[in-house]
Amino acid sequence: MTLLRDEDLSAAFDHASRSYDTLVSANPGYHGQLRRSARRLRLPRRGAGLRVLDLGCGTGASTAALAAVLPEAAITAVDASAGMLERAARKPWREGVSFVHAPAERLAQAGVEGPFDAVFAAYLFRNVTDPDRVLSTVRDVLAPGGRLAVHEYTLSGRAVHRAVWTGVCRGLVLPVATVLGDGGLYRHLWRSVVEFDTADDFAARARSQGFEAVRVLPLPGWQTGITHTIVARRPATAGDGR
């Protein structure tokens, strides 16, 4: 199976948007893990006076995590799937949260402009065609010293963690998704994790795109060794790091 990319992947997410939240709710700790990663941005003052970009917001789970952790920040949430974004925008949000339909690679064309004090990207990078290009875009929209937190299925590299991920997908996720008519998307999501960077490899990728203070932080529960938060910072002096 070839991985889905660009318009094909957006269309698959459009179709799956109607049941996405239901499937997510079956994942123990899903929302709590997102909040943990949002806290790892370590932004001050509950986000007061700060701008945060939620890149790849889906149906808004990552946006909700940011809004809970940073209740006074201005949050711009972006996604390439119109269907997922429509579901997100329908939910009740406080003032200061806005949604924009745009691929991560074309933020400027959609009017999404920095500087942002932080970027949060959940379950995004393994789904883009060119992760380096997106990391470069993220670096450019961050203010000098701005922070990045990537919450992602990035395997540890140990065989046991790869086996657990495959077992969960084949034993639970794929059968349910197939019944719902979204088997193709979730087969892609399984393989996108297996074929993507390990957590350490992604950290190295971030460093190669000019980020500093890059760290890989584990997440607890059944996703230990499967999901990580990778935190990083744009250098405080513009132009440094590359």
UniProtKB/TrEMBL annotation:
SUPFAM superfamilies: S-adenosyl-L-methionine-dependent methyltransferases (SSF53335)
EC number: 2.1.1.-
One of the GO biological process terms: methylation
InterPro entries: SAM-dependent_MTases_sf (IPR029063)
Keywords attached to this entry: Methyltransferase, Transferase
Gene Ontology MF terms in the entry: methyltransferase activity
Pfam entry (one): Ubie_methyltran
PANTHER family with a match to the protein in the record: TRANS-ACONITATE 2-METHYLTRANSFERASE, TRANS-ACONITATE 2-METHYLTRANSFERASE-RELATED
Name listed for the protein in its UniProt record: Class I SAM-dependent methyltransferase
Organism expressing this protein natively: Streptomyces gottesmaniae
